[in-house]
Amino acid sequence: DFLFFWGAVFLVTTTLVAFFKKENQELIPAKEETKGITDTYRLLFSIIKMPAVLTFCLLILTSKVGFSAADAVTGLKLVEEGVPKEHLALLAVPMVPLQIILPLIISKYTAGPQPLNTFYKAMPFRLLLGLEFAFLVWWAPKVKHEGGFPVYYYAVVVLSYALHQITLYSMYVAIMAFNAKVSDPLIGGTYMTLLNTVSNLGGNWPSTVALWLVDPLTVKECAGARGHSCATAAAAEV
């Protein structure tokens, strides 16, 4: 119901904007970036052919592979170990003010001539947090009791998520600052959109692969069923 309501609001408001919003002709620059869809794609192709842009795209497409499993699978594994989904959802609430404040703080360090320095410094800490997340999943069944999980376990989870948000936003703000810095002002919109799209793709495809690999890489043992393997989802169901 929630998604349906806001989906309807989104459709209605954007349709109203399309019909009733008029451009101010006096403020439109004489020379536009592009004149149509074909020109836009031709421009994108000419940008991505540049050696520096091509190398940078390859780097940001692969830079997030190291923490894709920790980002995508940790929450699911905690639920699998018995942590209630509603408790995990509540743990996200303290992260909201942190997510608002972090970009304001980090932007001070990414405003200089080398914004990617923040990206480089945050990466090893984010990789180490992947190991810490694995520890949280391993630790969950050890501390679980009949009433659920102790308060100190949730405190450690919140602290871990907070540290993760610091590293995540340090990398995110740094890459956005770098994209804004290197984009040609004459074609800034197209240039930045290309780099940000590649950056987003670099975060999404490793998470998809990580989720796909969960079942093949999970070791399972069958209890009370000799000669049967639980390696696949179908076999485990049997």
Automatic annotation (TrEMBL):
Listed GO CC annotations: membrane
State its location(s): Membrane
> Which Gene Ontology molecular-function terms are recorded?
acetyl-CoA transmembrane transporter activity
Q: Name one GO biological process term.
A: acetyl-CoA transmembrane transport
For this UniProt record, the keywords arranged alphabetically read as follows: Membrane, Transmembrane, Transmembrane helix
Q: Where are the transmembrane segments?
A: 6-22, 43-67, 87-106, 118-139, 151-175
Q: Which InterPro entries match?
A: AcetylCoA_trans_1-like (IPR024371), AmpG_permease/AT-1 (IPR004752), MFS_trans_sf (IPR036259)
Q: What is the recorded membrane topology of this protein? A: Multi-pass membrane protein
**Is Transmembrane among the key words of this record?**
yes
Q: Which SUPFAM superfamilies match?
A: MFS general substrate transporter
Short name of one Pfam family: Acatn
Give the main location: membrane
Q: What is the protein name for this chain?
A: ACATN protein
